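Suppose a classmate hands you a notebook page containing two proteins, each written out with its sequence and a corresponding row of structure tokens. How would you begin to make sense of it? This section walks through that situation. The first entry is reproduced here exactly as it would appear on such a page.
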Amino acid sequence: MGNSSSSNKISAQDRAILDMKNQRDKLRQYQKRVTVITTREQEIAKECLRDGNKQKALLALRRKKYQESLLTKTDQQLAQLEALTSDVEFALVQKDVIFGLQQGTAVLKEIHKEMGGLEKVEMIMGESEEAQAYQKEVSEMLGGKMSNQDEDEVEDELDAMEREVIGVPSLLDAPSRVTEDLPDVPQETPEDKAKRRRKERAAREQASEPIAA
């Protein structure tokens, strides 16, 4: 009886370790593919800014951020599971490991679904009805899955990219002699920026029109 119990314990632990190895191998494959896609999404964001279409640029960066966050989430989760499976009292954490592996599988499926290939990425720039419908679909999907922190980070990235691409000056970089000749303009506080961004997000979520070309 004792030997049988020990054998079952080792078997369950080995199986969990193998499942994690398979998930990590698949994650590495996805990371390579997603890197190609997110690089193109960043290029598209810059192209859209050059064309004066900030809304599409934002969509490209939001999609990139979401895909990167999925990879990071899965990577961190696998690292935690690896620590659990090395526990000498594996039987005590076995249910947690199995649940974690199930979650990992679900996230990997989500990553695979969201990658979509480069042809999907190019549709962010499209002007056809099909492209606009896809843009609307992606925007609505991201609205329900990205945190406020993620959205803030994306908009900070967009602001920095806008300064780089089209030379929008930062107030910190403006020459003092120019600012001295201008009337005082209230600067946007972090609280004001947060309120403005919340309003913009709410308007984006409520919008039912396809993204304009």
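The notebook's second entry, a different protein, reads as follows.
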Amino acid sequence: MRLNQNTLLLGKKVVLVPYTSEHVPRYHEWMKSEELQRLTASEPLSLEQEYAMQRSWREDADKCTFIVLDAEKWQAQPGTTEESCMVGDVNLFLTDLEDPTLGEIEVMIAAWDRGVGVGTSLLAPLSSPLGVTRLDLTKFEAKIGQGNEPSIRMFQKLHFEQVAVSSVFQEVTLRLTISESEHEWLLEQTSHVEEKPYRDGSAEPC
């Protein structure tokens, strides 16, 4: 999505940047993992297909993708590449034609070796002007495999509530409705996150 192509979200533990071609090789290596394929219900792609997917996601009006960077590594020294700091991604899909105020969120953490506690920072695209104002979203859903207990617990801690279970797809659907009180809570939880301009492929640590 071009709407977020110049948006960087800087948190205490993670930095969210637009998904660019620079990130594809490492993302491709992640997705060779059968465990990640299972957790994300994904099929393995060739490197060429992965580059094509990145270009498609950049242009599609219904997909908003951020790559998650380890903020400590990214800020450690000037010139650190984003690829070396990658730990996962966050996606917003706007695919419900009957309800344009609903966004589906997906979070994948593929390489995090310094503990937990990044959940609220990953909600930054929801609480920032990008999610609530520019995209005019008021509801968010997460569809998670029934066996992915860590992800289910993370979303429940972030006030998502279970609204459906699919025995066919072996997944649960969690939903967060952005009421006034929930919006205030989100803003409090992400008050440490700064929105900054992003220069394609060359954002600099602050």
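A careful reader of the second entry would note: Strands lie at 7-10, 14-18, 63-70, 86-93, 102-109, 139-145, 161-166, 171-177, 194-197.
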